[in-house]
Amino acid sequence: xxxxxxxxxxxxxxxxxxxxxxxxxxxxxxxxxxxxxxxxxxxxxxxxxxxxxxxxxxxxxxxxxxxxxxxxxxxxxxxxxxxxxxxxxxxxxxxxxxxxxxxxxxxxxxxxxxxxxxxxxxxxxxxxxxxxxxxxxxxxxxxxxxxxxxxxxxxxxxxxxxxxxxxxxxxxxxxxxxxxxxxxxxxxxxxxxxxxxxxxxxxxxxxxxxxxxxxxxxxxxx
Length: 222
Fold this sequence. Notes:
The protein is an alpha/beta fold and 222 residues long. The protein has helices at 12-23, 37-47, 63-72, 90-99, 111-123, 130-143, 160-170, 175-182, 186-199, 205-214, and strands at residues 3-8, 28-34, 51-55, 80-85, 103-106. The chain has 2 domains: 3-123, 3-Layer(aba) Sandwich (Rossmann fold); 138-214, Orthogonal Bundle (Arc Repressor Mutant, subunit A). It starts with a strand and ends in an 8-residue tail after the last helix.
């Protein structure tokens, strides 16, 4: 399967470099480019890429707002957004994750890591930058006094085993790692994760990590 990628950045040179890199990788192809959030939303609806590489800071509609619109559109459920930033501010990245981004990367990521990230997000079986993502979410949960001490009622739709799986997903483990941890087959884990996504109306694993911490199922330092 060829992974279709949409590039969103207001810098032509940045888009050109990413396009050259992605188009040279077997199994990946750039299907379109946009220079602001509004164009990104329109092209996503038109081209239906599997992965959108989205700059955060752009004139007009920024990447966080565009990510939120894409994530809220049920017809675009199969689209995964990875935000790109040159800024180290956690607020931007956390805002993007809250808006529905599947992960984040710095723009100076080495080429091999960028290609691997696109493939990881498209596959959906692993969390992009699991340790960095988890620590970022933990930091913001620590600041939020509204987070409950134990899991919230919305998790009652999950079976005990599904809660176990969600807790391990929240730690950033891949399906194979979860299978080893809980002594299950990878296929069983994949089935559990799929059901959890459906029951919690979550788009992807990044959202499951958010839910695991924000519900109180996991606490910072777990």
